[in-house]
Each structure stands twice: as structure tokens, then as C-alpha cells.
Amino acid sequence: MSQTRRLAAILAADVAGYSRLMGADEEGTLERLKALRRELVDPKIAEHHGRIVKTTGDGLLVEFASVVDAVRCAVEVQQAMPERNTGVAAESRIELRIGINLGDVNRRERRPLWRRRQHRRTD
Q1: Buried b / exposed e along 98-107 (16+ C-beta atoms within 10 A)
Q2: Backbone phi, then psi, for 76, in 5-degree steps?
Q3: Cα-flanking dihedrals φ and ψ of residue 105, to 5°?
Q4: Distance of CA 94 to CAs 6, 8, 81, 99, Å?
Q5: Each residue of 63-111: pLDDT tens digit?
Q6: Confidence (pTM)
Q7: Closest residue by Cα to residue 123 from 102, 101, 99
Q8: Angle ∠(6,10,15) on CA atoms, nearest 5
Q9: The CATH number of the domain covering residues in 4-121
């Protein structure tokens, strides 16, 4: 099986307190998460030339060719979050945790594997 290796920035994001939010209001939380992805996160990823590699219930992994693009995407998403949470009770707010890893990515069966070289959080 052939492998290709290249340097990439991987952005990992998830929702802080996701289980608590789902326990309190499952339908409302899911609807707000869908809107957050559709209106903010996905457009910022596209704007900064990212590619969604994997999604989970409350998180995602995004690959960027440039660490600068990954950091700019993360910062712009985090800067927009306070406005999105305006008027939302503190216990119902969606708050994102975002980390970025820079390292080698192996391409094998379309599943990226990476070794961590550098780590930077934006929360």
C-alpha cells in the first residue's frame, strides 16, 4: 500500500459541555449547532481553504495546507462566538474549544494520520 506524506495543519474543534447542553435541550442544541456550522464554521473553513476530514456529534477535524490559514480560521470563528451567544443564557451558550496541530500527514486509504509537532489552542 503506497503512502504519501506531507506537512499539514489539523484543526480540531468541539463543543465545551456538549453532554450537559444535550441533556438540558437536545432539539434546541442540535438546531443551534446546525445553524452554527451552516452560518459560521463551514463558511470560515472554505474561506481559509480548509477541508473537513471528519465530523462527530459535537466536533470536527479540518485539514489546512497552511498553519496560518488554520489559525486565522480558528481566531475568526472564536471572535464571532460572543455575538452569536448574545441574549443566550450562560448555561445554554455554545462555546467552542479549538486546537491546531502541525505535523506530517500520511495518506493511506483516505484516512489522515499525523504526528504532532506543534500545538496551539485558541480558547
Answers
A1: bebbbeebee
A2: -65, -35
A3: -115, 130
A4: 34, 28, 8, 17
A5: 999 999 999 999 999 999 999 999 999 999 999 999 999 998 887 655 4
A6: 0.82
A7: 99
A8: 165
A9: 3.30.70.1230
